[in-house]
Design brief:
It contains 14 helices and 15 strands. The chain is α/β, with parallel strands linked by helices and 391 residues long. The strands form four sheets. The protein has a six-stranded mixed sheet with strand order 3-8-7-6-4-5. It has a five-stranded mixed sheet with strand order 12-11-13-14-15, with helices on both faces. The protein has a two-stranded antiparallel sheet with strand order 1-2. Helix 5 (126-133) packs parallel to helix 6. The protein is globular and about 60 Å long. The chain starts with a strand and ends in an 8-residue tail after the last strand.
């Protein structure tokens, strides 16, 4: 198939809409559903991300995309009991590495992942499909599906769930084009290979980076390669835990991503793990309640007349002092940035979310100040020399 008609473009008034190939056939097949314009943007960007993560780490990878940026990305490392609990993994599912990757990708920022488009690096198996079946999602793209997995996914959304199979051998043309206001833009595809060689120029007093830290920095950089810029990504134990996308200011990226990383960590605090929800509460309502409970608006879910609709037992306030004490326990977080840090304030903010290793291009006139701030906290920072803007 060389062309596919779409219902409409980014918005319902944008018609006609289609995708097509100038040469050759479209490199994917729709097995179920009818994907839209934004669905396909998410699917094709997400597929590139997980394909590169798999190549860089050798591990199955997954990402959860919303509005052409990842809400989460991860590789298939085993889940701790705590992570299984905060990701609401059904104990009856026999987890696989790919399922672990998706649970991590979806669980990093569950509020942002609501209604996501999923990309998987490997053939979708039954366990991964079982996880997907329970979530509110627009669709999934993968290089293949087992019979059991496909049957599960085709039953989602009354048979209208978008299931796309990508040709893993497809290689796009080296030149890419797009139009804006009738003007055609053309550039070479960003084929930069991200590997540990990019981390060899460590400019701080602390030169030590473990293999696990280098892996996490690669995950951060590959994630940023497919995130709308400006962007910053925090990674811990093989998964993104905070992504700040599309901000005009670098410090706002760092704060936004850091706040998301903090929420991810706070969800693991005993005060949150011990919340007792009413029977039958919807996943989205539960996730929203947790988000509000650990925010400054906590009384919205704890006020009389409100908490009874959410909790079996009224929780105690999770105080700022308790939150600060818990946040201090988060350590060994990796941080990547798609462009240089212009000021040391980014490092100051990153430290508050447990960052110990950093990868960024370097090249700011204030590099000395940024390095000095890293040295103050004993961080190791590599200058990659490579910018990763994506628009």
């Amino acid at each position: 198939m060389q062309e596919m008609e779409l219902k409409y473009g980014c918005n319902p008034n944008q018609k006609p809409s289609r995708v097509f190939m100038e040469e050759g056939e479209i490199p994917f097949t729709v097995l179920c559903g009818k994907p839209g314009y934004i669905n396909l943007l998410d699917a094709l960007n997400g597929w590139q991300l997980v394909k590169e993560l798999k190549e860089a780490t050798g591990l199955p990878a997954a990402t959860s995309f919303k509005h052409v940026s990842p809400a989460g990305a991860a590789v298939g490392l085993p889940l701790s009991d705590t992570l299984k609990k905060i990701y609401f993994v059904d104990e009856t599912i026999e987890m696989t590495p790919l399922a672990n990757a998706y649970a991590r990708a979806r669980g990093a920022d569950r509020m942002s992942s609501f209604g996501d488009f999923i990309s998987l690096s490997d053939v979708c198996d039954k366990a991964t499909a079982q996880l997907i079946a329970k979530e509110v999602s627009d669709g999934v793209i993968a290089p293949g599906y087992t019979e059991e997995a496909l049957e599960i996914l085709k039953g989602k959304r009354n048979g209208n769930y978008n299931v796309i199979q990508i040709d893993p051998s497809y290689v796009p043309a080296p030149i890419e084009r797009k139009q804006v206001y009738g003007v055609t833009f053309e550039q070479g595809r960003n084929e930069l290979k991200i590997d540990t060689e990019l981390l060899s120029n460590v400019v701080t007093d602390n030169k030590e980076m473990t293999d696990a830290q280098k892996r996490d920095l690669m995950i951060a950089l590959i994630t940023l390669k497919y995130t709308q810029s400006n962007s910053v990504c925090y990674v811990k134990d093989g998964q993104a835990i905070g992504i700040g996308a599309g901000q005009q200011s670098r410090i706002h990226c760092t704060r936004l991503a850091g706040n998301k990383a903090d929420i991810w960590w706070l969800r693991q605090a005993p005060q949150v793990l011990n919340l007792q929800f009413v029977d039958g509460i919807k996943r989205a309502d539960r996730d929203n309640a947790i988000d509000v409970y650990i925010s400054d608006e906590y009384m919205d879910v704890l006020a009389d007349g409100a908490w009874e609709k959410i909790f079996k037992v009224k929780p105690a306030v999770f105080t700022k002092e308790e939150q600060k004490e818990w946040l201090a326990k988060n350590t060994d977080v990796a941080l990547g940035s798609d462009a240089f840090f212009p000021f040391g304030d980014n490092i100051e903010r990153a430290r508050k979310s447990g960052v110990t290793v950093i990868a960024q291009p370097g090249g700011s006139i204030r590099d000395d100040n940024v390095i000095e701030t890293c040295n103050k906290f004993g961080m190791a920072m590599a200058f990659t020399g490579i910018r990763l803007f994506h628009h």
